[in-house]
Structure formats: structure tokens, C-alpha cells
Amino acid sequence: MSASNFKTLGLSKWLVESLTAMKITQPTEIQKHCIPKILEGSDCIGGAKTGSGKTIAFAGPMLTKWSEDPSGMFGIVLTPTRELAMQIAEQFTALGSQMNIRVALVVGGESIVQQAIELQRKPHFIIATPGRLAHHIMNSGDDTVGGLRRVKYLVLDEADFLLTDTFANDLGTCIGALPPKNKRQTLLFTATMTDQVKALQEAPSIEGKPPLFSYQVESIDNVAIPSTLQTEYLLVPEHVKEAYLYQLLTCQEYIESSAIIFVNRTTAAEVLRRTLFRLGLRVASLHSQMPQQERTNSLQRFRANAARILIATDVASRGLDIPIVELVINYDIPSDPDTYIHRSGRTARAGRTGDAISFVTERDISRIEAIEDRINKKMTECDKVHDTAVIRKALTKVTKAKRESLMEMEKANFGERRKQRKNTNFSKKSSRV
Predict the structure, then answer these.
(1) How far is residue 292's CA from residue 298's CA, in Å, rounded to a whole number?
(2) Is 341 left (phi over 0), alpha (psi -120 to 50) or beta?
(3) With 90 as the cut, is the pLDDT of residue 428 above it?
(4) Which residues 6+ apart lie within 8 Å of 377 measured at CB?
(5) pLDDT of residue 364 exceeding 60
(6) Which protein family is it in (predicted)?
(7) Tens-place pLDDT, residues 56-65
(8) Going by C-beta distance under 8 Å and a sequence separation of 6 or more, which residues neighbour residue 347?
């Protein structure tokens, strides 16, 4: 495609100036192909690897059209996690700062009353997680959400995840409050082309609208991970995983590297955070049992390098722009190979190199084989931690730190809130039967 800058793609002059001020001057592949089609009025499905500029691919044309007619609620972006919603809201706010843009962030963990007040002011763009927006639609009244009936754009970011059963009810509630398909543009962006997304590509044309435009950068299913990513595995006995982790994070190669450690459960994230902190490492965590303010602070500390290690559940695996990550450790192996791709996508972004190391116990072999099939690449064995004498040296102090952390968590009643919530939900269900 000959277009080589944002002006020739059709974005407004003011927006091109904003992008230039942010040192964004060369459109990426996904931006080159999608921006003109969205400006022409097409619905769009865009597929590209994490870190390839998908946000600007939809924000650019939406902001351009909005500036031609800056009316009330103009566009909605739905995304699966609070952190990703915050990041997108920041980008919209930064891009539209010279145009007095009003952006509302509607996510869990924040004041419902404050959000309702913001929605009553008819913000131009709403960036939301489906659960919280659905709550407002069901409970906040027409003066708060009535403006949704006039929005021009709906974006599903990380569409592959939003179109799963997890979000089905809330997503249905959100879409039900919007204009019909022929009265709005629908834009789906994803790093993974799932069956649900592919089914939408084959949907019949909508009368009165240009045909659906679908574009995938370099067949993202074949190029699941960047070529600059080194994928390795480390065989680890289950009961001494923490000692291996400590050794890896403090070995000569990674002693100063920024790292994200992915675990499958919130309890594991908290145990590791407390244990590594006791061992003197600068560490933060990110998981669903943390209050929203703590989650935000952790992410900011990690971005600012005040913490060099972030321990996270899959809350952090999607779309978050953390450009400094040099190492991703899959402390627990995910059951879905696509989750591995999203996790690994936190490093080796935009042409940089990075390492993804997976801790493999005897129970993980089939999962690793499924991942290797999906990424079409064999992992190599990691040789950074191999001296058993060193492991023995680390084992005593790591075990002591872990034991103290577990005692501390027990004292603090970690996890009690979730148990109480589960019991409450169970009681509600029982009373309905």
C-alpha cells in the first residue's frame, strides 16, 4: 500500500499533529490497512500481534469522525480487563487532549456513583469492561445510559476473549443498549483468530453499509510469536519451584532484567510476591483479589522500574503496553496455548528481543506439547540454572521466606473476601431454586 503517513490515510490534521507530538509518525501494517476502510464506513475485523498498534488503528478514525461532529456519546470500546481499559482511556485522552475530548472509564473496582455521574455528562468516548457497563445499563436509569442509543462506533478489543462464554451475558446486555448494526460501525481487533471471530468474518453483508473489511497482518495464526522471542523450558520439581525461580531471577544473565512472572492462581501470585520481597527483590503483583488502586499502583511501579519484577495472573497477559519487559516466566503453564502466546507477547515487542521461559513439572508435558504445536516451534532447554549446589544453597532461605509468607497471609486472612463472596453467591442461587 502506497500510503506512508497518517495524513494520506485520511486522519484529521489535528490528530496527525497529536501523533507527531507523541513521536508516532509511521503507520504500522494494521493501521495502513484498517484506518482508510473504517473512515469509509466499513465494519472491520483486524488481526495483528500484540504491540502492532491496534489501538490507533481504531482510535484514529473514530477521533477523526468525532471531530467533524463532536456530539454526545460517540463511541464505546469494550475490553476484557480493567488495566487494558485504563491504558486505552489514557491513549484516547492523550490523542484528543487539544480538542477537549471527554473520556469516561467504566470498570470494576471504582465508584459506581462517580461513574454514573460521568455517564450523565455524556462523555464522547466510553472505555469499559463489559461487566461494569452492563451493571450501569441494568441499574443506572435512562438519564445515565440513554445516550448509548446514539453511539456511532462499538469496538471489541481483544475480541477473541470477549466472544467467549465468560462475557456472553454482559456483552449481550451492552450490545442490546446500542443502536442496531446498520446504524453503527462495529470494529473487532484481536491478536488471535478464534472460531468465533472467523464466524463473524463470514456473516452476511448488512444492507446500506459497505462490506465488512477483514485484515490479518502476515497471517497471525502462522506467526503466533515474534521471531525475536527466545522460547525455553526449565524442568523443575514441583516442590522446589520457588528456589529455581529465585535462582533464575538472580543469575548473572537476568540479575537486572525486568520480568513478568505468570501464575494461574491469585494465591500463588501473592505467595510469590511476599516470598521474593522477603528475599530482597523489587517486586510487585497484579491479580484480581487486589483493590483497584493497588493494581494501578503495581502497574505504575513496574512501568517506572521501581519494581523490576511483576507477578501476575492472566489479568496482565493481554494488550498491556509495558515496553521494558525483557523476560517472561511461565511459572505455571496455561491450559490454553493461546494464553501462552498472549503472555509471551509481553516481551520481544516492536522488533526487540526477549526471552520466555516455562517452568515444566512432570504434569505439564502435554500442555507444553500443545503450545509447541500452536507456535510451530520447539522450545530449547534453559541452561541458566543448572548447578545443584547453588540450588541447595538457595533452598533453605527460599523455603524459610515462603513459610513466613504463608504465615503472614494466614494472619491477614488472605482470600477470605473471595470465600465470603462465593458463599453469598451460593446462598443467592440456593434461594432462587
Answers:
(1) 10
(2) alpha
(3) no
(4) 225, 231
(5) yes
(6) Belongs to the DEAD box helicase family. DDX49/DBP8 subfamily.
(7) 999 999 999 9
(8) 229, 260, 325, 326, 327, 328, 354, 355, 356
Side-chain-side CA neighbours of residue 102 (13 Å): 12
Q: Can you spell out the DSSP letters for 299-315?
A: HHHHHTTSSSEEEE-GG
The one-letter amino acid at 226: P
Q: In what order do the strands lie in the sheet with 354-360?
A: 283-286, 309-312, 259-262, 327-330, 354-360, 229-235, 380-381
Distance separating alpha carbons of residues 166 and 187, to the nearest angstrom:
20
Helices (H), 50-166: 54-68, 82-95, 112-120, 130-139, 142-145, 159-162
3-class DSSP state for residue 189?
strand
Percent of the chain whose predicted confidence (pLDDT) is above 90: 55
Rounded to whole angstroms, how far apart are CA atoms 175 and 198? 19
Residue 356 clears pLDDT 90, i.e. is over it = yes
| Residue 42 neighbours by CB distance under 10 Å | 18
Q: Where are the domains of the chain?
A: 6-216, 229-416
Q: Which residues pair with 128 in a beta bridge?
A: 78, 106
Task: Express the helix, strand and coil content of the chain in percent, nearest 5 each.
Answer: 50, 15, 35
Q: What is the pLDDT of residues 113-122, one digit of tens each?
A: 999 999 999 9
The fold of 6-216 is Rossmann fold (3.40.50)
- Average pLDDT for residues 387-391, to the nearest whole number? 67
CB atoms within 10 A of CB 421: 10
pLDDT bucket at 425, cuts 50 / 70 / 90: very low
Give the containing element (helix H, strand E) for 402: helix 388-411
What pLDDT does 168 receive? 93
Q: Write the CATH number of the domain with boundaries 229-416.
A: 3.40.50.300
Show the beta-strand stretches assigned E in 229-384.
Answer: 229-235, 259-262, 283-286, 309-312, 327-330, 354-360, 380-381
Please give the grid coordinates belonging to residue 412. 491477614
